[in-house]
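Re: duplicated header lines in exported structure tokens

Our pipeline writes sequence and tokens for each protein into one text file. With two proteins the header for the second block appears twice in some exports. Here is an export where it did not happen, for reference. First protein block:
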Amino acid sequence: MPVDDSSAPAPRSLRERRRTTAVREILAAAEQQIDQQGPAALSLRAVARGLGMTVQALYHYFPNRDALVTALIVKEYEDLADAVQAALDGAPDPADLPRLVVAAEGYRRWAVTHPERFQLLFGTPLRGYAAPAEGDTTRAVRRMATLFHRELFHGFSRDRLAAADASALSAGLLAHLGDLPPVGPGELPPAAIALFLGAWGRLHGMVVLEVFGHTSFVGDHQAEVFRVTMRGMLADIHRRIPADGAAADAAGP
């Protein structure tokens, strides 16, 4: 009996395959330039020269520097998220570490291995560049956020997260957090968003300090300091989330 493949996607044309290959090579050349000279030195002319192309030929794939920067940022966010996911996938079961700590260490390893690419994402903004609103970069950031808040709050019901201790926050801030779109951190109750932001600040801040050389005095113990800090952060946050019964009492009748 013949197989009905009418719903199968049509094979890509030779032109499409060549374009995909060219884009991949351009991004790799741009990454190499960033690795060698830092994000601020990125230029279409230098990338084209490194590939033996003219700038005019490169414009067929990226019409300007901003388009190339946007594609690079998306790629680096995806690579970083892939590294975090790979760390989680490779964790033993049962895990020796909480999965949030495993994810955080995957994030740190990528950052210290690729410091210039990390700076492209989180360092000084490139002069004159603004990421497109609600574009591919936003979706890439949301994927990263989802990975972390999933592991940070794994096992907690929405009622427990909603009843988390947010007594230090103003009513105005809680209302603002409650109005966020229901994607990324906005999937969480306001109190949990506040906890997530605090966790993100501590995690990311430790990595930034290391990548930019501010914790070099710790020497070879930076990974241990990071792990201890992440364990402590996780314990602090989980202490602020009530038990099931307490959450029900907080919710009221």
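Second protein block, exported in the same file:
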Amino acid sequence: MKPFLDKHFLLNSDTAVRLYENAIQGLPIFDFHCHLNPQEVWENKPYSSITEVWLGGDHYKWRSMRIHGVSEQYITGDASDWEKFAAWAETVPHLIGNPLYHWAHMELKMYFGIEKRLSPETAREIFDECNEKLQKPDFRPRSFIEKSNVKFIGTTDDPVSTLEYHQRLKKDETFTAMIAPTFRPDGALFIERPTFKEWVDQLSEVSGIRVENVDSFLQALRQRVEYFHEHGGRASDHDIQKMEYVQTTKEEIEPIFTKRLNGSELTEKELMLFRAFLLTELGKLYAEKQWVMQLHMGAMRNNNTKMKNQIGPDTGFDSIGETNFAEGISRFLDALDQQDALPRTVLFNLNQKDNQVLAGMMANFYEEGIPGKIQFGSGWWFLDHIDGMERQMKDYANVGLLSHFIGMLTDSRSFLSYARHDYFRRILCNILGEWVERGLVPDDFEFLEQMVRNIGYYNAKRYFLER
């Protein structure tokens, strides 16, 4: 019986251990998609307690606590930090089988040197020990990033953002990691939101272009793409809940845009046409700048209306959708490709039924000299567990070239989440180790070790930064 969370955790063969220890353990991290706040990095925010740094904004933990029957008072409510931590500690022993059980203990071990299992019996001791350490200057965001050997962080940013803290960090010679903004134009695409007119007013203000029609709207968005590029942006990110695609024209979209700008509601068909048009125009801009376009597909958001009204949107009441993407994605990518305007694109799915659809889509569109121009993204959100990561990589390998895979991302708001990269790397090495042990792959360690280094770091670095 193997000890829990020992140095060979998730590594089930000598070959897997060799690959992990010789090739990928301690390799730098290229975290190309997350939701960290650059202001907290710039300010090197001190934390009042482990509850703030560990539970604040973590929807994964909030969901598990709700499933366990914890009162919302101890999740997002006005309970004390200790009471919230105690409620989390009460939940943790019941997480066996959930990746949160592993991540929680990996984070305690990696960042605080705590190897005790978290439970109601150990909660107070762990709470006090973590809080004592958090008072020290090397237990702040910058130190967590440095300890994790993170070289690149891709944040998620609204086009109307001033990117003030990205600029400050770029000028700070004491901070060596690169933090780049990612263009996330939800405000432009989700035209049906009640905040659309307010967002357009903000876009007009920051771009200096008064948005009155489709032309000025596109001009303002182009200005923001230019602005992001000047400040290190090399990628976009899109929340694609449904992907229906029909080619349309600016002339067809103009009355739809005007109608919504004047406050009228749109039909489902009008929304679909508008989004298809705008995604195509944005894709062209990304291709001009040689950016990476990321499409995160399949989330069904804010399912609980009562809780959305009570504590706001995006608070842990999202789940996996069931929309079909095959035809829509194919038509969208093809429309851009026909105009020689298809950027490097990463396709992420949230429903495993879409794995082979997206894995098979990769080879439909390519460009000479760019290995893996279209990528099948890593297991994401509800799929970043052992089974989800294994299945994603095996589906990738079955119909593509796994050696060109760009690997893991945190998609997190927590500075402690870099343990997930180690989790992913161990799973990757275990898959390859198993294939070698079974005689499915030759024991060419020189090639295999370079392959895991590439997937763990270098492929993503080349894909996002090298042109």
